[in-house]
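Throughout our pipeline, every protein is held as a single compact record rather than as scattered files. Nothing more is needed to write down the fold, since each code stands for a local backbone conformation. The record that follows is passed on verbatim for readers who wish to inspect the format.
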Amino acid sequence: MASDIKLSKIASGRLSAEEYEANFSDIHAPLSMHQAYVEADRCYFCYDAPCVTACPTGIDIPKFIRQIQSGNPVGSAKTIFEQNILGGMCARVCPTETLCEQVCVREEAEAKPVKIGQLQRYATDHYMRDHEQPFVRAEPTSKKVAVIGAGPAGLSCAHRLASYGHEVVIFEAAEKPGGLSEYGIAAYKTVNDFAQDEVDFVLSIGGISIECGRKLGEDITLDQLRADFDAVFLGLGMAGVNNLGMRGEELSGVVDAVDYISDLRQARDLSVLPVGRNVVVIGGGMTAVDAAVQSRLLGAENVTMVYRRGKDAMSASDYEQQLAQTRGVKIIFCAQPVRLIEGDAGKVGAVEFEYTTQDNGKLTGTGETFTFAADMVFKAIGQQFVSDGTDGIALKAGRIDVDENRRSNLEDVWAGGDCIAGGEDLTVAAVEDGKVAAEAINQYLKSERG
């Protein structure tokens, strides 16, 4: 969590209760039944639809949209959940503009794709509001699986394994399950405790228990889990936060964006959250955008994102960049931080940047600098895998090395999500990792019976 000391001199309560409520309301109003029917009718129901190929979980998108069109949202939701049990969250946070909607034939022809994400939300919300778990658990087996991490990868894996009758125990380091969905996504994208509602939905299949406050490497060990369980799945995420590596990071007002977003997500009263008047966000990814936009929504007067490379290199999509800009966030490209400048004793007062250029593919400074006044600076330059407790697991490029079935070098240990080499830092990709691993684990457990 963000340090109280680091933010002790920054004001809170800049807005009225009504402004906080309006600013952090649902960013996309759900489609009405009529709107859903009209939008579904725009789908061409393509044979060999490119949108299905673009979906990491392989949802049969034309099928679920046709089911909406025919007045069967329950069947539509089941089609979605068959491939993505966290389809409700993915409908809210998936970068559909760079996945399924980007390759939609309507996008190619009219620059106006079918609103696949919003249709997916329409179906899944309808189902979760009025219906019970769509899957029936198979007869219990004698096999037990440990899942480390109650984020999207872990929940997906646990649900699929439970559906096969295996007993699953999820060990979660945080106080609440949900992982990124609970702690790391902008509050206006998942309102009304939806992340916890979805966890309850996943658990309702039966055969899954969660033990929170249990951290690998501290409260439990991999050797212990391998001895007590028939298989282990690691959905550890990316717990480490990259530092700027420069003097001044210890100043009050210089904070990790990840910690701040987590604090915001758990706050019941947004007026108690401190926010600067002049905020600078260093980074160009989704975390940087979320920190910048939410700072504006909390009452910051000036918010500037600064990214060291060009617009096309930003990992935040064009849509997210536009979202930031329409909320009053200024984005500056091709500039890197040089130093954090102290203002009043112990507090950050400004950040000096240097413009950058590419020289044979290598980023270099131009020597030209500029300075922004800042009473709050967010560090959002990426996260890293923390390997604590994973002794014996082979790594590749600093993350867990797995095969196509998400199996590690240990025959009874699988992994998925951001912690694996090649992880895509997407909720939907983590869900697919968990699903693929669960299928492989199930085959392994079947071969081990008897």
